[in-house]
């Protein structure tokens, strides 16, 4: 079973990586970009029987820093 | 308009970051994880009039290394 975890910085937390991407896009001549926020995307291939609460525990303990980051869990039912 | 870009390593490309996360999860006592793949998630706040083909150009030129990475663009129609 595939489970996807999206980790994003909370609003109000400075995002230097996003700023750098924004600046680089402008340098390449792309206009019309107001803001860029960078995050992480982690795909877990889980054995059957691993519940969403287990994944949430993984996020809280390792995958996300919940002081400055939010996370979102998306389970792929098909696979 | 918010546009989300997901950048993932292609299948077959070694993923040391994912391996490290997998190892750390096992070290924390989480069992049932078969595999972990790490990727990037970039949220762009675009001005109206920036088309999906523009975003694709940004991905090809800057956001993704298309030799080893795939990207997926998701446009948020609501915002």
From TrEMBL, chains A, B:
Pathway: Purine metabolism; IMP biosynthesis via de novo pathway; 5-amino-1-(5-phospho-D-ribosyl)imidazole from N(2)-formyl-N(1)-(5-phospho-D-ribosyl)glycinamide: step 1/2. GO terms for molecular function: ATP binding; phosphoribosylformylglycinamidine synthase activity. Keywords: ATP-binding, Cytoplasm, Ligase, Nucleotide-binding, Purine biosynthesis. Gene3D superfamilies: Phosphoribosylformylglycinamidine synthase subunit PurS. Its EC number is 6.3.5.3. It catalyses: N(2)-formyl-N(1)-(5-phospho-beta-D-ribosyl)glycinamide + L-glutamine + ATP + H2O = 2-formamido-N(1)-(5-O-phospho-beta-D-ribosyl)acetamidine + L-glutamate + ADP + phosphate + H(+). GO terms for cellular component: cytoplasm. GO terms for biological process: 'de novo' IMP biosynthetic process. InterPro entries: PurS, PurS-like_sf. It is found in: Cytoplasm. It holds the Pfam family PurS. Belongs to the PurS family. Part of the FGAM synthase complex composed of 1 PurL, 1 PurQ and 2 PurS subunits. HAMAP family: PurS. PANTHER family: PHOSPHORIBOSYLFORMYLGLYCINAMIDINE SYNTHASE SUBUNIT PURS. Part of the phosphoribosylformylglycinamidine synthase complex involved in the purines biosynthetic pathway. Catalyzes the ATP-dependent conversion of formylglycinamide ribonucleotide (FGAR) and glutamine to yield formylglycinamidine ribonucleotide (FGAM) and glutamate. The FGAM synthase complex is composed of three subunits. PurQ produces an ammonia molecule by converting glutamine to glutamate. PurL transfers the ammonia molecule to FGAR to form FGAM in an ATP-dependent manner. This is Phosphoribosylformylglycinamidine synthase subunit PurS. It comes from Allosphingosinicella indica.
């Amino acid at each position: 079973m595939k489970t996807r975890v999206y980790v994003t910085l909370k609003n109000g937390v400075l995002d230097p990586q996003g700023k750098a991407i924004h600046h680089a896009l402008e340098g390449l001549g792309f206009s019309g970009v107001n803001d860029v926020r960078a995050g992480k995307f982690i795909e877990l291939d889980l054995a059957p029987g691993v519940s969403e609460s287990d994944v949430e525990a993984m996020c809280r303990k390792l995958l996300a820093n919940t002081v400055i980051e939010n996370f979102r869990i998306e389970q792929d039912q098909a696979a």
